[in-house]
Design brief:
Length: about 400
């Protein structure tokens, strides 16, 4: 007799769905001659000196476990990186944890701090990863729609949300520069948030993985402005084109980091040794490796935003990351999945539907982590598509 054991699994999984971003990318990948501007992954290669450090680690048989929080030297380098770039002050021995990408930091942090019944404030649109992790821990996301405020959380909405949910809120998630909109926050805006957040005993999960990719004012970290409440997440995936190496960091108060490390330890033991040694090279000798990439992204951003606006797809200029969040022309309606499927099938251009992000319906996300040649061809195809539809 066949047993249906699936019905015995964790009940919170019933309220979680697989990533629609990855599924849509998989679906359109089958279309011949498709140009994909879908995933948030740098199209650059990892810098040669970083690859050589990884290769040297393998050659030296550094294939054993590191300490669970990561190589001490890497934690020192990460703390120095954050200090030199953003003015933070973390003790690498007790306040920095090496994780399996920023994703590992997000999972371990939320799992460590959440109890069933807790609530987590999440400004939207936002990369949806945080939401299923909150739900899997029995907590409830409290969404704050920013679509009418230039896709930025306002101090007023933050204050009102905290006042309404004060008894159950355990944390708030910030992601800036933001995926999918590319908006970021100035220091004055962050200071206004800090003045409010200091009034509450809650965690601030600050995912700043795109911190090296800002195109206007320098990035300001909540890890500097509110260190006693902030769990600062960063890593080398975007800054050094190292997505596949899977190395991230989380920094915060020592007593909290020690508990987050327990979740990390029980989940993955430790991040991959040779990847850590490659990241060490990136932190020690490649602090500004991301700057050349950033200049390329800036040129692509300016070209893409101008083209999208010319074609009638209203797009604000992204202040960071490598995404443009464009409005679907009104004649197509607001069904972003229908628009993107039609575009992929008829014009062989793949974009991510805005509905893949909460409060993103009616928009599309376009990744300009692609060559200028691909962007130019994609815009030409998009122009023809819009002209006949």
């Amino acid at each position: 007799m066949t047993k249906d054991l699936a019905k015995l699994m964790k009940k919170e999984l019933l309220d979680v769905e697989p990533s629609s971003i990855l599924q849509f990318d998989k679906d359109v990948s089958q279309i011949p001659n498709i140009i994909k501007l879908t995933l948030g992954e740098p199209d650059f290669n990892t810098p040669d000196h970083v690859k050589q450090a990884g290769q040297a680690s393998i050659a030296a048989n550094h294939s054993h476990y590191t300490q669970s929080p990561g190589l001490p030297s890497l934690r020192v380098a990460a703390a120095q990186f954050l200090a030199s770039k953003y003015g933070t002050d973390y003790d690498p021995a007790t306040q920095v944890l090496t994780t399996v990408g920023a994703t590992g930091a997000i999972y371990s942090a939320l799992t460590a701090i959440l109890n069933p019944g807790d609530e987590v404030i999440i400004p939207i649109p936002i990369f949806p990863l945080y939401i299923p992790i909150v739900k899997l821990n029995g907590a409830t996301p409290i969404f704050v729609d920013t679509s009418q405020d230039g896709f930025k959380l306002t101090p007023e909405k933050l204050a009102n949300t905290l006042a309404t949910h004060r008894d159950k809120v355990k944390a708030i998630v910030f992601n800036y520069p933001t995926n999918p909109t590319g908006v970021t926050y100035r220091q004055s805006e962050l200071e206004a948030f800090v003045a409010i957040l200091k009034q509450y005993d809650i965690f601030v999960i600050s995912d700043e993985i795109y911190s090296e990719l800002t195109y206007g004012e320098p990035h300001v970290s909540l890890g500097k402005l509110l260190p006693e409440q902030t769990l600062l997440i960063n890593g080398v995936s975007k800054s050094h084109a190292m997505t596949g190496w899977r190395i991230g960091f989380i920094a915060g108060p020592a007593a909290v980091i020690s508990k987050i490390n327990m979740v990390h330890q029980f989940t993955v033991t430790a991040a991959t040794t040779m990847s850590q040694e490659a990241a060490l090279e990136a932190m020690q000798h490649g602090l500004d490796d991301g700057q050349a990439m950033k200049q390329e992204y800036l040129q692509r951003r300016d070209y893409l935003v101008a083209e999208l606006n010319r074609l009638g797809m209203a797009t604000a200029v992204p202040a960071g990351a490598f995404y443009a969040f464009a409005k679907i022309p009104a004649r197509f309606g607001s069904d972003s999945f229908a628009f993107c499927r039609k575009l992929a099938q008829e014009a062989q251009v793949a974009l991510i539907p805005g509905a893949a992000f909460p409060a993103g319906e009616g928009y599309v996300r376009i990744s300009y982590a692609a060559s200028m040649a691909k962007l130019t061809e994609a815009c030409q195809r998009l122009d023809k598509f819009l002209a006949v539809n």
